[in-house]
Design goal:
The chain is α/β, with parallel strands linked by helices. Helix content is 47%, strand content 14%. β2 and β3 form a beta hairpin. α4 runs antiparallel to α5. The chain starts with 6 loop residues before the first helix and ends with a strand. 34% of the residues are buried. The mean pLDDT is 90.
Amino acid sequence: MLGRHPGWARRVFTEADLDAIAAAVRDAERGTSAEIRVHVERRVGHGLRRRTTDPMERARQVFAALAMHRTAHRAGVLVYLAIEDRKLAIVGDEGIHARVGDDYWTGVRDRMVERLRAGAVRGAVIGAVSEVGTSLARFFPRGPDDVDELPDDVSLGR
C-alpha cells in the first residue's frame, strides 16, 4: 500500500507503478535462478549514515544491506535509483558480473537514462529489469528446484 511509503515516493510512483515493477521482477526471474531487486530512494547522500554522493558506492551499500550477496549462485542484480539526485547505478554480484562485464552494465544504464530523460520512470525501471532478466536467464537458467530467495517488491529508502 503506497500510503505507508514516504511522500517523495508517492509523488513519483503510483501503486500501479510499484505493482508493475514487482511484476516485471517476477516475470524476469521466471527464467533464471538469479535474483533481481529494485531499490529507490530520494537522495544518494541523504540521512545521517550516508557519507557518499556516489551512486555506485551507495548501490553497493544497499546491495549488502539487502543481503543480495547471499544468494545461492552469487547472481543478484540491484537496480538503484536516487530520484531527486537524478542518479542511478546497476550492481551485479560477482557471479553475473564475471559473465557480462562492464560494457553490459553501461549499456543497460544508458538505456535507462534515455527512458528517464523522456519522463518514463516506470518504463525505465521495467525495461532495465526485463533486459537484465534476459541476460540472467542465459547465464543462470532456472532449475527445477529453484527458490525465490529475495522479495520482488520495490525497496524504498527514506
